[in-house]
Amino acid sequence: MNRLNETNLEDKNSVAAVMLGANFYTALGAIRTLGRRGVPVYALDYHFPPAYALASRYVTQKILCPNINTEEEKLAHFLVDLGRKFDQKPVLLASADSYALLISRYAENLADYYIFPENPPGLLEQIIAKNGLHHLAQKHGLDTPQTAVVDETVDLIRVAETMPYPCIIKPALSHEFVKVFRQKCLFAGSREQLLKALETARASELEVMVQEVVPGFDDQMYVFDFYVNQEGRITHTLTAQKLRQFPVNFGSSTLTHHLHEQALVDLGKKYIERLGYRGYGEIEFKKHPETGQFYLIEINARLSTLNVLFDKCGLEFTYVMYRDLTGKPLPEHHLREDQPWAFWHAYEDLISVSSYLKTGQLTPAQVLRPLLSHRKAHAIFAADDIKPLFSFAWLIVNKVFGKLRRVIGTKLKGAAQ
Question: Which CATH number fits domain 17-116: 3.30.420.40, 3.30.365.10, 3.20.20.70, 3.40.50.720?
Answer without folding.
Answer: 3.40.50.720
